[in-house]
Amino acid sequence: MDRPVISPELSLGAACTATPGRFRPARLLPGTLLSVTIGSAALSFSAAEQHVYGTGYAEPLIVAILAGALIASVRPPSDRYAAGIDFSAKYLLELAIVLLGCSFTATALMAIRPALLAGIVAIVILSILLGFGMARLLGLPPRLAILIACGNAICGNSAIMSVAPVVGARGAEISAAVAFTAVFGIATVMGLPLLGAALHLAPIDFGILAGLTVYAVPQVLAAAAPMGQIAVQSGTLVKLVRVLMLGPVCLILSLAMMALNRRERPVRWRHSDVAGLVPWFILGFLAMLGVRSCGLVPLFLLRPIGDASTMLAAASMAALGLRTDLRAVTGAGGRTIVAVCLSFLLLCALALALIHILPASV
Fold first, then answer.
1. 3-state percent breakdown (helix, strand, coil) of the chain, nearest 5
2. Most confident among 16-25, 44-53, 177-186 (mean pLDDT)
3. CA distance linking residue 342 with residue 20, whole number of Å
4. How far is residue 100's CA from residue 289's CA, in Å, rounded to a whole number?
5. For residues 48 and 18, what is the distance between their CA atoms, to the nearest angstrom?
6. For this UniProt entry, which segments traverse the membrane (predicted)?
7. According to DSSP H, which parts of 151-170 are helical?
8. Using the 8-state DSSP alphabet, how is residue 359 labeled?
């Protein structure tokens, strides 16, 4: 059987340039349903694991993308699924990012001292720049390098998913970055308490370390919990600042990509180009954050919105898996692992340096 048009070489932006009629509802339904089904199964697996063991060891987004890739490698979806899978990988992902904005408020930033806030911002910027540089020195493609750098510096899978459509990353690059970054997410949660004990860090300092190095907010809670409530609180606040860096980083990358494209293909500036400066989902993310910060979102809606964002993200990851060739992911494994390792060690070093420079108070 020939490999269908679903391919890791297809960028997330390809859906926008599809032929007319490609995304009619009838064409979208099969692939979208398949993606949602796999994503739902991944979330159900995670929920069952939580119920049985009291904690979740497998990140549902990772389960979704691996399940999709496994299905694609065993029995690739036929052409009739292609439009829906492409749609899910792009638009469901972008909608998930918009809804993610409701999970945060700007109010918590007022509780963080300016010196610590500046330190967090500086670490994120340095981690991205140095991480990208190291990955490029190792010979990784530019888009994969920026995905790894942003994933390590900001918030793991969420950062990778947000940055990917901005830089036009390919499916295989996204899959590789998500998979290898997830390994360090799990390792960090398990190993960070041991590091904190070995370094005799105070609870508030350990919380800052967790907030600066752990990828996901739930993982910060899990990593900081052994050191007590103070560690959890400081870790959560620091992590929030890192997550809020996602919007500005995507904006800067969007401007950089536009400048690069204009340099390669010079054109006259048009007012209509302003709309293309910032991806719509980043504006949506910031708008939702602002609405939530103003108290316009009822509290009882926060959990359903969060669940919807998670479901959409899981379906999108499943779609990425469905159009990914596992051979392309494993083929670039060695250098990717080294790049992720070096980026993570750099982040840890910068975090510990900040802790020693600043007084122990949030």
1. 80, 0, 20
2. 44-53
3. 44
4. 8
5. 39
6. 28-48, 54-72, 92-112, 118-138, 145-168, 174-199, 206-228, 240-260, 280-302, 308-324, 336-358
7. 157-167
8. -
CA angle 315–80–16, rounded 5-degree value: 65
Instruction: State the Cα angle at 318 between 336 and 53, rounded to 5°.
Output: 85
- Give CA separation, 68 vs 62, 133, 210, 299, in Å: 10, 31, 31, 34
Give the separation between CA 238 and CA 117, rounded to whole angstroms: 8
d(CA 177, CA 329): 9
For tokens 């901005």, the residue is: 166
Q: How many helices (H) and strands (E) does the chain have?
A: 16, 0
List pLDDT tens digits, range 295-318: 899 999 999 998 998 899 889 889
Model pTM above 0.85: no
- Give the tokens for residue 14: 């390809």
| Whole-Å CA distances, 316 to 37, 94, 264, 312 | 11, 9, 31, 6
CA distance 201 to 207: 9
